[in-house]
Write a structure and sequence with these properties.
Number of helices: 9
CATH topology of the largest domain: Alpha-Beta Plaits
Shape: globular
Number of domains: 3
CATH class of the largest domain: Alpha Beta
Helix content: 25-40%
Order of helices and strands: HHEHEEHEEEHEEHHEEEHH
Structural class: alpha+beta
């Protein structure tokens, strides 16, 4: 049914384009008869161009996993408070992007930093082509700014890694041996009432096993969103399977790097995008060359142009 609905959406969008085309023909015939409908004609032409471009962009998302929901994990690099604060800024950016895109964002795991920011966070983002769009964000993000935590107001550079994996559903079979999975319980911090704060409702699952290429891998997933330990365990198991699936997908795509190497190192020379707040304002994607000076809009979640530039490129 999902595949059928997907195909129907293509037909619907094509019919809409054809309707625009018919309107343009009609307006041109009206103009030939002497009536001035220039504004209406120009508006239809502009809309047709925009919708064709949108459909062409959507056509780039043709991989089986592109239509899936996504798991997005943010981890700060070395640098303590600086990087942890940068991680929280990215967390806010993706929450805003999901909301503006009409997608649902659910926080599955969130660890506060000692002074500010976050140690890590995992967000489940549900919506049409969530993974297809967000796979453009996979990599290291670099920030240059005057540090609010430095009494001497010096310029600092911080790094964070963003990892995006497709969220599996019941159409994908991932069989993990229960004996290979270790479960750890912990107190879930934050909101949720007495049960969440006083009982060990948070669950961390650790799978250690062999991938299809013979390499042994250790994969961790944790969830503290739900009120009960059982619900958190179920969520964490889906996350765990999704990450194992992503590893297997990389192998099948003949990408030589496993998960740890694909994350890249959080330091100079490995970033996919730079966010410069000082001495000038600029956000630049190093893969495509796309850039903007409106850093405030980007940090408020306006990253569609960067995503589009990446997906339309040959990167």
């Amino acid at each position: 049914m999902q595949d059928l609905n997907h195909e129907k959406s293509w037909v619907s969008q094509w019919d809409k384009l054809d309707e625009r085309r018919q309107n343009i023909i009609l307006f041109r015939e009206i103009m030939d008869e002497g009536d001035d409908v220039t504004d209406e004609l120009n508006e239809e032409v502009a809309e047709l161009k925009k919708e064709v471009e949108d459909l062409e962009f959507k056509n780039m998302l043709d991989q089986p996993d592109d239509r899936r929901d996504a798991l997005l994990t943010i981890n700060p690099g070395a640098g303590g408070t600086e990087s942890q604060d940068w991680a929280e800024m990215l967390y806010r950016m993706y929450i805003r992007w999901a909301s503006d895109s009409g997608m649902d964002a659910t926080v599955l795991e969130y660890q506060h930093g000692e002074v500010a920011g976050i140690k890590s966070a995992t967000i489940e983002i549900k919506g049409n082509f969530a993974y297809g769009y967000l796979k453009a964000e996979n990599g290291v993000h670099r920030l240059v700014r005057i540090s609010p935590f430095d009494s001497n107001a010096r310029r600092h550079t911080s790094f964070c890694s963003v990892f995006v994996t497709p969220l599996i559903d019941n159409t994908i079979e991932i069989d993990l041996n229960p004996d290979d999975i270790e479960m750890q319980r912990f107190h879930a911090g934050g909101k949720g009432g007495q049960n969440v704060n006083k009982v060990e409702t948070g669950v961390r699952l650790i799978w250690t096993g062999e991938l299809s290429n013979g390499k042994e891998e250790r994969v961790v997933a944790e969830c503290q969103q739900e009120r009960s330990q059982l619900q958190n365990r179920e969520k964490a198991l889906v996350m765990l399977k999704s990450r194992v699936y992503d590893l297997e997908k990389r192998i099948k795509e003949e990408q030589k790097n496993k998960l740890e190497s694909s994350k890249m190192k959080n330091e100079w020379g490995s970033q996919i995008r730079s966010y410069v707040f000082h001495p000038y304002n600029m956000v630049k994607d190093h893969r495509t060359g796309h850039e903007t000076s409106n850093v405030d809009a980007v940090m408020d979640g306006n990253i569609d142009e960067f995503i589009k530039a990446y997906l339309m490129s040959d990167v």
